[in-house]
Backbone:
């Protein structure tokens, strides 16, 4: 049972109706609405607390997909919804097996003529990683849109219902085709490659540093202000599979030792991403350990812990001499996703792997 305050939130959403602008571009009143699959995985958007004023002490993933959809009756004016409950997890506990299940299910759905697009509801903690993984492994130009919430479904002013409506609106829109995987959050549309979580609490928690959002969605209107440039989806060599190479992340900081790197190498790691300082610079002790790891065939990628900008090849370490790879503008977490996929696809050696990072 949700708290009394939560019922007010849901009731308020039930009274909303969409304006005529809510129909996807090119659709009139007599058109057949697109069929959008909504795949729920849990997260804060499906969270509930005992008190409607509590936005941090809640249990994630306890609200089912049918309840999420019932809170947004305006969805019926935008698309025909095909709901599925894929998982009910807090996204901090996202695992590779669930990534595999999710990607394979999306590919199966999009291969059907009956499905025009997919929306995934997800927790915010690892949304950027899941979105980028799907961006690289979905084999369709049909829209795939992830969304989430910073406040649980039981909260006053819950942001999930509007984010869900906007995500379905984006997935149903003709301009979303061929853009790769998108994230619709707080009225903005982001590319999966660019978007990152930047706040622990704000409803405007997702941004695309340096580059900015692709566009926006509001009151049923969708506008893209730029397109996606780098290769994705159908233009990648990556295929989702059950086997994931072991890739870990280490951080460089004042006084760091080499012990973590040595332990990972001893444990059989195939790749290491380092969240370096500044332009991917690495403390001398850790850099030597990473150089030793690279000499043993471990792929080493230099990223940055800064949060924006890009890591220049040979800009803060002798990459050519040490066999390191530059992550470019990818943060450490997305770098790990790309490195795992590249290694699984048979990528070996710093030259070949650098080409992968320069491409995607």
Residues:
């Amino acid at each position: 049972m949700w708290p009394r305050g939560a019922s007010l939130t849901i009731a308020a959403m039930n009274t909303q109706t969409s304006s005529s602008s809510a129909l996807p571009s090119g659709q009139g009143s007599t058109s057949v609405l697109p069929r959008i699959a909504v795949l729920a995985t849990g997260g804060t958007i499906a969270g509930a607390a005992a008190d409607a004023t509590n936005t941090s002490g809640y249990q994630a993933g306890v609200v089912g997909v049918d309840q999420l959809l019932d809170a947004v009756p305006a969805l019926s004016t935008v698309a025909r919804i095909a709901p599925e409950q894929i998982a009910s997890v807090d996204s901090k506990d996202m695992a590779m097996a669930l990534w595999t299940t999710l990607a394979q299910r999306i590919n199966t759905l999009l291969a059907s003529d009956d499905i025009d697009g997919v929306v995934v509801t997800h927790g915010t903690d690892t949304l950027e990683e899941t979105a980028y993984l799907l961006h690289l492994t979905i084999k369709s130009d049909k829209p795939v849109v992830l969304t989430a919430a910073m406040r649980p479904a039981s909260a006053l002013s819950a942001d999930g219902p509007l984010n869900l409506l906007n995500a379905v609106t984006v997935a149903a829109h003709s301009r979303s085709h061929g853009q790769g995987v998108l994230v619709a959050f707080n009225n903005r549309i982001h590319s999966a490659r660019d978007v990152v979580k930047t706040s622990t609490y704000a409803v405007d928690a997702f941004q695309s540093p340096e580059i900015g959002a692709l566009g926006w969605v509001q009151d049923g209107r969708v506008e893209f202000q730029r397109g996606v440039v780098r290769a994705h989806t159908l233009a990648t060599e990556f295929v989702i599979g059950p086997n994931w190479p072991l890739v870990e992340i280490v951080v460089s900081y004042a006084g760091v030792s080499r012990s973590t790197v040595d332990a990972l190498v001893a444990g059989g790691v195939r790749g290491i991403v380092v969240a370096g300082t500044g332009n991917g610079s690495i403390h001398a002790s850790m850099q030597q350990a990473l150089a030793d790891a690279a000499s043993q065939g471990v792929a080493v990628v230099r990223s940055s812990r800064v949060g924006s900008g890009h890591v220049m090849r040979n800009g803060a370490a002798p990459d050519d001499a040490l066999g390191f790879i530059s992550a470019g503008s990818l943060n450490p977490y997305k770098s790990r996703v790309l490195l795992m996929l590249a290694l699984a696809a048979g990528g070996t050696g710093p030259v070949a792997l650098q080409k992968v990072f320069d491409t995607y």
